[in-house]
Every structure is written in C-alpha cells, then in structure tokens.
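Fig. S4 source data, part A: sequence.
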Amino acid sequence: MVITMNKSLLCSIAVLLSSLIAGCASQPEPVATSHNKEMEAELAEWRKLKPGVQRLVAIEGELKGLLATLETITENEPTAQLATADNGHNVQTQVMTPVHFEEKKLATPVPVQTRAVQPAEKQINDEILTATLSQTSAPTSVEQNMSVLSQVGAGSKAENTSFSLQLASVTKEEAVDPTWTQLKKRHPEVLGSLDLHSEQVLVANRTYYRVKAGRFESYNEAKQSCKLLMSSGASCIVNKG
C-alpha cells in the first residue's frame, strides 16, 4: 500500500512538473508576438516617413539659407521702411518737375508756316507722309490711300519718270535696312522681287529716311502693287523715283 501511494505521489508530482514546464514554455510566446507586432508597426510608420525625411535632408542647405535671409530681412526692416519713406518723397518731387516742364512747353509758340516755302508737290508728299506713316498719327483707311494715289498719279502722268512704293519713314538711317527686312518678310508675295532704295527728306526741320521699294515704269503698275500691300494691312504710297 505504501508503494502504491508513492507511485501516486510520484505521478502527481510528475504531472505538476509537466504543467509548470508547459506553462513556462508557452507563456513567453504571446509576449514575443506582441513585441513583433509593435516593431512591425513602427517599421511601417518609418517607411511612410522615410521619403519626407530624405527630402528634408536634401534641402537642408536651402532651408538654412532661407532662415538666414529671413533673419536679415527682419533685422533690416526699419531701414527698409525709412528707404520707402524717402522714395515716396522722391516720387512727389519727380511728379512736380514734369508739370512745370509741360507748362513751359505749352507757353512756347509753335511754328506753323514752315512748309510755306516748299514746292507744291513736295509739300503734298510730306503731308501724306506725316498723316499716314508717322508712328504717332492715326492709321489711314484704304479708301483714303487710294485717293492720295490718284492725286499723285494725276500730277505725274505728263512726266516721263519711274515710280516707287514708299512703305515707311524712319528718323535714323541705320533703321532703314531692318525696317525693309521686316516688311519683306511680312509681304513676300509683293516685295520679294523688288529692290530697296531710300530717300532722305527734310520735313518740319526734321530729317526722315523714306523706305522705298521697286522701280516701276508706269504709275498704274506701281498703283496695283500698292493696292495689294494695303489690302494685307501695309502702308503704301506711290512716289516718283
């Protein structure tokens, strides 16, 4: 009977030890699993933040420069305000100066009889020039230009001379070639086969250089070419020579 009790006790002790061992072996597993999940979550969050961190590292130098610039602007703000105030006074002074200048210009008499001594035909051509080709005057319609062409042609039919197309008028001789090049590019169908020649004239005590093209034997031939140019938006006058 004692032996039987010892066997039962040994079995109980063995079962208890087995339970303890099994408990010790299985208890750390949930802890390890929970720790792994936390690490995975932190790793995933880091992966999301990694591109932003890399961008910040890449522009670190620019950010430092920007901060330094902002500090400089903040330190110089009182000086900038004073400079702005000074500029405001300067603007007022500059605005007042042209007012006195304009008053002097208005008080100066403007000569209006300068062209009285010029030949009749040249005076008509110069008035046409200032009315149609000056950059500061209003544009002339095709009908008005046709009327001008008729007047010039009527006074020139009796003379045996050549005719040319006056396309523009400039105040500097070095501007003649660039002006011709630009006009030729815009209207190659008419000006492509014509040659350039210029004419220096004096209008109202100011020198102008007329940009002219072609040498036509008849006035009607020059007039037809001039019509084509005006229909495409160009300025044109038929002149002698």
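Fig. S4 source data, part B ends here. Residues 130 and 136 are 9 Å apart (CA to CA).
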